[in-house]
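Why should sequence recovery work at all? Because a backbone constrains its sequence more than one might expect. Tight turns favour small or flexible residues, buried strands favour hydrophobic ones, and helices have their own preferences. The token representation captures these environments compactly. In the example below, the structure is given first.
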């Protein structure tokens, strides 16, 4: 009885023959896809799919002494923003042919940073993206940057700190939200702010205040919350209404808080948007299905993730790209109306 021979996995040479290109072109498609014409790259990628070609990462690492691994540091918070950003970065890495390894850093203590470094160095991590929504994580990123290429995803650093940063312009997002309310004729516009130690919350406060001051309106109607959940929005809205029941609009620091705020307003006998307009921030997947559908600011997490990887690769190549801030987009729905 003749046993079957094992089926040989397709090689780069097989892909080159199928695509009608050279072995070097296939290599460039894997390692430097931006160097190829789009039609050539598409032909090589189609041949890979048809043959079921998979890169031999272990062989590549032995040959180049590179692992193709990018570290991602997350604050470990369950809030919507950091989770979406982590997923966006992972997707951007896969699109560029890299794998990711995740480590959680909740503080900037030396022991935590050293533990993260040991983890990354032990797995041959080549470079790191750090999601830094709070100062303690940003401090940890600065320490990491002394040992390996690091790009921070954050909204709270200035160019003077000379860090490579990608962020979403939180202040501009807040300006878009509040300007929308001003244009609708609202004059008493309050803000339910997120936790004060978050860069995002600080940026949204600043944008809200700027527009109100520019419009000659009161910039002091604000309640800060200790968390980002719907229950925090509910409690903050109750506190706000107890302080001033004559409000005609509220800008809320994220969508889940806005969900709780709308419920608190309904419990107080107010109708949204007939009596009071509400704007959120993030544009979570369910925002269009809230009752009423939520006007909100959409954060371009996917674009930020791709930018983070582009900046990281440039940093690893010895460049200093500096800072890249992406402008969010206002999504107008039925939770706001003209006065």
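From this structural description, the recovered sequence reads:
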């Amino acid at each position: 009885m003749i046993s079957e021979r094992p089926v040989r996995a397709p090689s780069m040479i097989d892909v080159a023959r199928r695509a009608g290109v050279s072995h070097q072109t296939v290599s460039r498609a894997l390692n430097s896809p931006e160097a190829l014409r789009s039609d050539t790259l598409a032909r090589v990628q189609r041949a890979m799919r048809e043959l079921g070609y998979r890169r031999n990462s272990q062989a590549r690492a032995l040959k180049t002494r590179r692992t193709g691994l990018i570290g991602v540091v997350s604050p470990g918070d369950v809030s919507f923003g950091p989770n979406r950003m982590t997923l966006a970065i992972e997707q951007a890495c896969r699109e560029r042919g890299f794998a990711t390894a995740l480590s959680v850093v909740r503080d900037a203590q030396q022991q935590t940073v050293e533990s993260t470094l040991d983890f990354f160095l032990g797995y041959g991590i080549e470079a790191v993206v750090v999601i830094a929504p709070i100062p303690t994580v940003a401090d940890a990123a600065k320490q990491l940057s002394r040992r390996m290429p690091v790009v921070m995803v954050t909204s709270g650093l200035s160019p003077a700190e000379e860090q490579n940063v990608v962020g979403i312009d939180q202040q501009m997002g807040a300006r878009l939200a509040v300007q929308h309310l001003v244009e609708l004729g609202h004059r008493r516009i309050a803000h339910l702010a997120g936790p004060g130690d978050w860069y995002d919350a600080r940026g949204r406060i600043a944008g809200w205040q700027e527009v109100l001051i520019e419009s000659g309106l009161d910039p002091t109607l604000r309640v800060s919350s200790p968390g980002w959940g719907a229950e925090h929005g509910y409690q903050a809205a109750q506190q706000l209404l107890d302080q001033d029941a004559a409000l005609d609009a509220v800008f809320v620091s994220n969508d889940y808080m806005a969900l709780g705020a709308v419920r608190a307003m309904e419990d107080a006998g107010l109708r949204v948007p007939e009596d009071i307009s509400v704007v959120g921030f993030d544009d979570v997947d369910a925002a269009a299905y809230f009752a009423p559908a939520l006007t909100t600011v959409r954060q371009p997490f996917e674009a930020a993730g791709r930018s983070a990887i582009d900046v990281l690769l440039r940093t690893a190549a010895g460049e200093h790209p500096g800072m890249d801030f992406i402008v969010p987009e206002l999504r107008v729905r039925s939770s706001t109306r003209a006065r």
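A few observations help interpret the result. The first strand starts at residue 69 and ends at 74.
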